[in-house]
Amino acid sequence: MDLAPRHRHPLPLPASWPACAQGLLQRGAAWLHTGDTGESLLALPGQALVSRWNGRAWENRLGGGPLPGSPWEALASAVARKSCPWIGAATFELACDEAGLPRKPLEAGALGQHWAPVEEALHVKDGQAERWSWVDSPAGQDRWMDWLAPAAELGRASVQLEALWGEAQHQAAVEEIQVRILDGDFYVANLCAPFKGRLSGDPVALALMAFQRARPPFGALLDLGGLQLLSLSMERLLSRRGSLLRSQPIKGSAPLTGDPERDHMAAEALAADPKERAEHTMILDLVRNDLGRVAVAGSVQVVRPMAVETYPTVQHLVSTVEATARPGLGLAELLRAVLPGGSVTGAPKHAVCGHLAQAEAGPRGFYCGAVGWISANGDLDLALPIRTAQIQGEQLTYWTGGGITRRSDPAREWAELHLKTRAITG
């Protein structure tokens, strides 16, 4: 996690990790978890920038006061006010509005984005903790030890999910997209379906279990003011380090069984599958085009095409696209060009989003929007919140989806939806 803190101080943990994280999380800490490196960042957020839909437009507020401009402009303005990173998330529908794309209607009061500045955080890797701060007078060690006092026992949690539509409905939606593709309306569309569930236990306990089981490269547990977001994403939507832009779209899936021989054969089949390669290529071209809108001419390149990457429950085809940012490129312009991510819309974006606004069961919310961190110097790391639960009390919504091409098998697409629920149900 390249967040460049101003101060770093070792901190002896008062108990085993992650047992001592619960006290901090119950104080509303934002938790970013990088499964492939085993890093965790638990950050104490400040006053948040919040954008809500009022029935006609987005209203932006920072600490109770209004901020003018579009949501992305308000975010850029807020980030520029502080020398610390901001952690948060934005919805698919807000990203669609900023990009001028069709989307599902929203109820008045719907939350569109929530970002909070982070002046202090706890960084943990390999059981070693450090206090990170971006201010000159951070909290002392004694205060951190109080915040980290472990709970009597680690809680337990479980989730039961049920799809909001059945296999026949999903098959009909897949076949309708295939008709539209044959008519020339678009090339590939990412069709998503919501699962509803009941959470038994604490979201913190669910996150602890899910992070350990799924080891997500871009895990997050965020309190968004009455809504908790638990993301187990493995897809980097967009990163920026200086002038270097990077996106790592995922398209193409195969189950992971735990049998080395079967999984190796499945990986080879996935890499050679004409349907999966065609779907991936179309999304890869879309991502290259999106980055090209804000990059130095000729700088967009695919540095790692269609690599098979393995996760605890699934294998994916992943490509890495890099580009050099155009001089003077601002945050709002960058986000407007890239979001919503091509791998969760389809190509061309406008035609696909218009169809999905009619075909899907409801607004996606934070699923398929963006989650991560943004710094005042312009650096950022945003994941696509796939494998993501939106939790309110005991009620939980979890979307899954997949890219539909003319070669798609409706039965296989239905099975893929359920395969992707295993990240949270175990």
UniProtKB/TrEMBL annotation:
Region forming the signal peptide: none
Xref: Pfam families: Chorismate_bind
Superkingdom, natural source: Bacteria
UniProt GO BP: L-tryptophan biosynthetic process
InterPro entries xrefs: ADC_synthase, Anth_synth_I-like, Chorismate_C
Gene3D superfamilies: Anthranilate synthase (3.60.120.10)
MF-aspect GO terms: 4-amino-4-deoxychorismate synthase activity
Domain Chorismate-utilising enzyme C-terminal: 168-420
Protein name as annotated: Anthranilate synthase component I family protein
Species the sequence originates in: Candidatus Geothrix odensensis
